[in-house]
Amino acid sequence: MKALSQRRRHPLAAIALLLMGLLLTGGLYAVASGANEAKAQSSPYTAEDVEEGKKLFVANCATCHGMSGQGTETGPSLVGVGAAAVHFQVGTGRMPLQMQGPQAKEKPPQFNEEETRQMAAYVASLGPGPAIPGEKALDTSDADPGNGGQLFRVNCAMCHNAAGAGGALTRGKFAPQLAGVEDVHVYEAMITGPQNMPVFNDATISPQGKQDIIAFLNTIESTPSPGGADLGSLGPVSEGLFVWTAGLGVIIAFTIWLTSRSS
Amino acid sequence: MSTSTAQYEPKTRVGRITNFVDQRVGGSGMVKEFGRKVFPDHWSFMFGEVALYSFVILLLTGTFLTFFFDPSMAETHYDGSYVPLKGVEMSVAYASALDISFDIRGGLFMRQMHHWAALLFVAAVSVHMLRVFFTGAFRKPRELNWVVGSVLLILGLAEGFTGYSLPDDLLSGNGLRIIDGVIKAIPVVGSYISFFLFGGEFPGTVIIPRLYVLHILLIPAIILLMIAIHLFMVVVHKHTQFPGPGRTNNNVVGFPVGPVYAAKAGGFFFIVFGVLALMAGFFTINPIWNYGPYDPSPISAGTQPDWYIGWVDGALRLMPGVGEFVIFGFTLSLNVLIPALGPALLLFTLMFTWPWLEAWVTKDKREHHLLDRPRNAPTRTAIGVAGVVFYCVMWAAASSDLIATHFSLSLNDVTYWLRALFFLGPIIGFLVAKRIALALQRKDREIALHGRETGRIVRLPHGEFIEVHEPLDEYHQYKLVNYESPEVVPPQPNAEGKITTAEKARGVLSRIFFEDRVAPPTPAEVEAAHSHGGHGEVEAEHEDQESLPRQ
Amino acid sequence: MAKRNSGNPNTPERVTGDAPSQLERHQDPGLPPHRPRLADKDPKAANRAEKQVSILFIVSIIGTLVFFIGYFGVDISNDVEALRLQNMLLGLGTAFAMLGIGTGIVHWAKTLMPDHEVVESRKPITKEADRADAERIVGDILDESGIKRRPLIRNTLLGAMVLAPLPAIAIFRDLGPLPGDKLSHTMWDEGVRLTLDPSGTPIRAADVTIGSAVHVIPEGLKEAEHKLEEKAKAVVLLMRLNPEDLDPSEGREDWGYEGIVAYSKICTHVGCPVALYEQQTHHLLCPCHQSTFDLTQECKVIFGPAVRPLPQLPITVNSEGYLVAQSDFHEPVGPSYWERG
Question: What CA–CA distance (Å, rounded) separates B270 from C73?
Answer without folding.
Answer: 25
